[in-house]
Amino acid sequence: MKISIKTKNFIFVLLTTVFISVNLTACSDDKPEQDAKTEHISFDHIHGSEVSDLKKHTFEHKFAEQCVEREIKSSVNKDVDRKRFSKPCLCIATRIMRNLTTVEAEKFLVEKKNTQSLKMSFDEAAYFCLQNKAKPRAKVLFGKK
Known about the structure:
The protein has helices at residues 5-26, 53-71, 78-98, 102-109, 116-131.
């Protein structure tokens, strides 16, 4: 008795399909499904406590002060530049403060270190705060630009 190639392929596909479907149904569990309301999700890690308002306020002013000092370090007229840089630096510090974590605040306030995430936040905040600043207008001579 000879079996054709089409019949062999059909039997192979049929057996493979039956094998896979039996294994998939055997993998299900017998536990009843829980309601979405009664389901409790547990975490294996502890979430950090929120940064207190006092720490945020202290961070904001110390960071703004450090920013101003960094900007006027090589300045000739420090008093004028201090007034000029105080507003953008405070804007940057306020923007960074929004996403401040406990670890970053502790490292900055206690250990006097700037973390990499703090530097990245500074770059983003500086871009945001300084792009809102009005740019000087070009000189207009004889009604032409």
